[in-house]
Structure formats: C-alpha cells, structure tokens
Fold:
Amino acid sequence: MNRVSKLLFLTIFSACSISSCSKKIWNNTDSSKSERGLLIDGQDAYDETAERWAKVKSKSSPVRGWEYVIDKLMKAGVDTKTLAEIYSDPRIPTWTPISFKVKPKESKQSYQEHINEAALKNAIIFYKENINYFKSAEQKFGVSQSIILSILQVETKCGKNTGNEPIIYWLSRLVSAGFPPNLTYNLSESKETPLPTLKEFEERASWLEEEFLPHLISTIQISQKAGASPLDIVGSKGGAIGMPQFLPGNVEKFGIDGDKNGSVNIYTPADAILSVANFLKLHGWKNGQTEQQKHNVILEYNRSTAYAETVLSMSKRLEKKI
Ligand SMILES: [Ca+2]
Structure:
C-alpha cells in the first residue's frame, strides 16, 4: 500500500473509530448518572484510545494519531498528498491530548518588561531604518507611526524574536481539541471548578476548532504560495508568525505588500509595518480617538488588557522620540 492509499485507508478507519467512540461517550447522557459516572465511562473510552495510539505509533500508521485533524482538512479541500507529507513528517510529534479550559481566565502575563530603555532604543533604531514605510503607513491608513512601532517592538522586538516553532503542529493541536478521546481526557484531568460538563467541553472545543481551523488551512496555503513546506513556517506556540505575530489567516486578510515586490512577507519590515497599520484601521483605529477607543482596538490585536495598556503606554514614550 503506498503512502496516500494508506492515508485514505487510515482516514476511513479513523472516521469509523471516532464515530463509535463518540457514541460511547455521547450516549452517556442519562441524567440519573453522576458526573463521576461520566468520567469513569469517559476514561474507559480513553483507555481504549490509548491502546489504539499504541498501534498508531507503530509503523502501520504514518500519521500517528492525527486522523481527526486530517479529516477536517480533507473536508476543507486540502489534498491527501499534502496531508500525508505533513503528518508523516517526523518534525510533527505523535498526537497527544491537549488540555484546555472551558472558561479561560485572562492571562496574568505582564508586559511591563517590554518598557525599558533598551527596548526604546531598539525600537528607535528600527524606526530610523524604516522611516519611509512608517510615514507611508500613517499617510495611507491614518494610524500613528508610534503605535505601529510599539506593537512591533512588544511583539517581536521589531523582528528579532519571531519564534522557531513549526506552527502547523501547534495549530493542529488546537484543532484536535474536539477529538472525542481528547474530550474524555479533559473531563478526567480538568482542575476547573465547578467541573465543566461534557457538553461544555464540547462547545469550547468547537469554538477552538472554528477559530483555528481557518488558520491551519491558511498555513498550508501560504506555504504553497511560497513554494515551501508548511513545516518550514515557524513562529510562536500560539501559531503566530512574522514581525507583527499575525495568525496565518490574518496575513491573508490584512497583509499588505508594503515594498511592492509582488508578495506579502510579514518577516520583512515594509510588509509588516503596513500590514499592522491596515489591521488597526480595519478594526476601527482613528488617530483622534479617545484612549478608551484606542484601547478597545488594541484588544482586537491581543485580548489582554495588560497588553493593550503596555502598547499604548510604550507608544506615548516613542511618540516623543520619533
Ligand atoms: Ca512584499
């Protein structure tokens, strides 16, 4: 059996396994059963799956547990040859469960360390090297140069730290949240209180899938346009890439060919600067807005209040220096 036939076979095999596994978990909705009862049955299903993983890890399965994600991508029209190449590549580890929260709290991450003299100095050097692109971005999109510069500095130190993770792996993990064995894993391992129900885990997983599947598809499309392997597209574990740390779908939606060389490459200053300006404009940025309105636009870039405060505060410091 060649690789593609094997993949097709595995996908069919996987669809059957997923459906029988789903039935086992989903049919357990008798309201007289306690949540603990659900957990025990879920664990049984997970144990069965663990056994299956032992098999898929063997040479008989080149895609090592990624059938659920492959199925989603095939339905979205990605060809099997491409999928076989991606998920049989040893740079993508064997699938393992992904923990997720039904009600995630806002990250307590502080961005304060981004505001210091070294950061300001780095940003100013970058600004001077690319002053024409900053001016053109403000002129075209009505977005202040200092806010673009501030975002690029906070995101990646103006391109110095764009990340080395193969984002296709991390996005694939997010898209596998709703894989039934993954739901049972979360039901048995969750530390959330009160313990979410299976339905709540399922709804959150659907949200994650809807949110990240388009970015996974975009990763493949971007790589194909660039004539590269999707595994060569590297960024953060959150799936963000380039100087402005855009999710891949946002590169396609908001990317601008700032240096007019015929393609959008957000690892280059010109394209990154104009793309950030375009993103902010299309999310409602206007230079004359109130601080609160600006804050709300920045939240569209990153849903962290601490992030928005840091970026705006840094922008004010930079404004005086450029
Ligand atoms: Ca370009």
Summary: The beta strands are 165-166, 234-235.
